[in-house]
């Protein structure tokens, strides 16, 4: 019997699988052992062919050549990673290789990575599928003991191909049509455009919002603050100032009678385990991490450190088969700050049917939890430790009893008006003990909690103080990356139609995009200069607002993606023909191009500068990147861009905020919002004196990070040259 070829998605996972399968011999782009050969992609090695592959005329963007509707969609090797593709292909064609195991990420896109490689290589050897949720040695070994027939995942592959081809047909045709029609780089797509529309709608709500003053009453008796409540509406506030002022007058010199004194014991269960969206949202709230940053950190904790399970999950539950591994996972975290919480759980018998276990609520992957591998904190960055801590504490919390507290509510009456006071007293901390002094975010309450003395029904107390309170209604909050990710997951309130079936579909299919793609979509909107950040708040740019006016109405609505995801899910389940879906997409792409061609509208650059492009001589546009300010050429075909200022990790010595690096070479200077300025050369001298405690590794990591970001955001090397010379 021949050897088995294993195809992983990335080198790091390939090396892990290779070690478990005892593949110690390094060969070109692979590892070999006596029974197995392990090779890998670098993510996708094969992709859909560019338009010019079908016809050379598509090299030039012309309205008359649209829509582009290739009869059969071809795939091609990605040039940048062609060497690795050839290495994988050589292993597939080896005569001593009898079968293949697909070991790419267990999901729709992971399936596509491997299947396209095998298709492009024209593979005819039998295939099996490894389907695992973590890449620990134990999980890999168990996975190989229970390999599935790859044919079981054919429908998942068909759904993945449909998603890719549909996005190609709709995205490229609509983007080219808009760009040609208005002579501006206007990118659109079925997920990014409705996401943009949601932000614009929120901005419109804020713009139209008119604050309304409201009023209330608070009185004090025996040191307790009582708050007035309108018994009819149930509200603690009124918009009628005269009414509140009259009540205040009536109560002057009167006594408060206690008409009710209720004390109840209440329980509050732990929050659910994390899926990726909730983790991204809370990491943004607590640490200001972007959605993409959190996903990248998670990916490292999953792939490199192997201490957390698969991150791209939309479930907050575990499956019953995971319960047998809980004790091992607890053993792995039974150290340091977690010991006092993990140790009792290890000794105790776990519940047979806990609330966090529900097979029906897990599709591809269960919630994010620790693996059976103990962490090595020395090799973790500060950011990785923060995310790991969030997951571990939540994992421990769901296994602890509810937080129990005694809640007392006092109801007082004066002249027919009712006043309330509430107090709580913890009885049993339960899961809350795990969070120690970390505050779990609680919504602002109308009725504040306070320490209440014992008061009996029928008692009367003199009112020591009575005051009128006032405030103003607040507009909706602007989106941050955390709240935007949550809105993308549940965009029902942004739907224009009141179609209940469609709303249900949006809820069931997980909203706009998938847990795996949302962070990239947000990054794409920033890099296309459609969004910008002011502090943590997200704003649309003038370009985005104009694009939303010009783009066909369908592409602005969340309903479109809901419909697609519903059909893709049906294809994955074998309940819908992929051919039928793609025929609909081709018709839809044709209709979109027609709509754009015949539309009336204009696009105007309102960010034009007087500086000329050194390549083509046209005036440059001033734009804000996510962490930089740039000048870009207005001519999309020219593509020139120059970074003029970049937010760095260098901290201001006065206010400790991150400084911008402006200019290049000898003229490069750090500038802070507080007014502090410092030449790059002076900064280097100062850091050299201060840097005794900074390791070489820290310096290298800092430089690598800055250079990588600079590469991503600028076509000019001026910033890179300046960054090369920074010595911390």
Automatic annotation (TrEMBL):
Q: Which UniProt keywords apply?
A: DNA-binding, Isomerase, Magnesium, Metal-binding, Topoisomerase
| Region called Interaction with DNA, residue ranges | 187-192
Top enzyme class, one word, equals isomerase
What is the protein name given in its UniProt record?
DNA topoisomerase 3
Which superkingdom is the protein from?
Bacteria
Composition bias, Basic and acidic residues: 688-699
Where the record annotates domain Topo IA-type catalytic, the positions are 153-593
**Which InterPro entries is this protein grouped with?**
Topo_IA, Topo_IA_2, Topo_IA_AS, Topo_IA_cen, Topo_IA_cen_sub1, Topo_IA_cen_sub2, Topo_IA_cen_sub3, Topo_IA_core_domain
The record places the site described as Interaction with DNA at 61, 168, 176, 312
* Entries under NCBIfam families matching the protein: PRK07726.1, topB
Instruction: Describe its function.
Output: Releases the supercoiling and torsional tension of DNA, which is introduced during the DNA replication and transcription, by transiently cleaving and rejoining one strand of the DNA duplex. Introduces a single-strand break via transesterification at a target site in duplex DNA. The scissile phosphodiester is attacked by the catalytic tyrosine of the enzyme, resulting in the formation of a DNA-(5'-phosphotyrosyl)-enzyme intermediate and the expulsion of a 3'-OH DNA strand. The free DNA strand then undergoes passage around the unbroken strand, thus removing DNA supercoils.
Q: Where does Mg(2+) bind?
A: 9, 105
Q: Domain Toprim spans what residues?
A: 3-136
What is one process in the GO biological process aspect for this record?
Answer: DNA repair
The EC number on file is 5.6.2.1
Q: Which GO terms describe its cellular component?
A: cytoplasmic replication fork
- Required cofactors, per record? Mg(2+)
Q: Which Gene3D superfamilies match?
A: 3.40.50.140, Topoisomerase I, domain 2, Topoisomerase I, domain 3, Topoisomerase I, domain 4
Q: What are the boundaries of the region Disordered? A: 688-716
Q: Which organism is it from?
A: Eubacterium ramulus ATCC 29099
HAMAP family in the record, alphabetically? Answer: Topoisom_3_prok
Q: Kindly list any coiled-coil regions of this protein.
A: none
Family recorded in the similarity comment = Belongs to the type IA topoisomerase family.
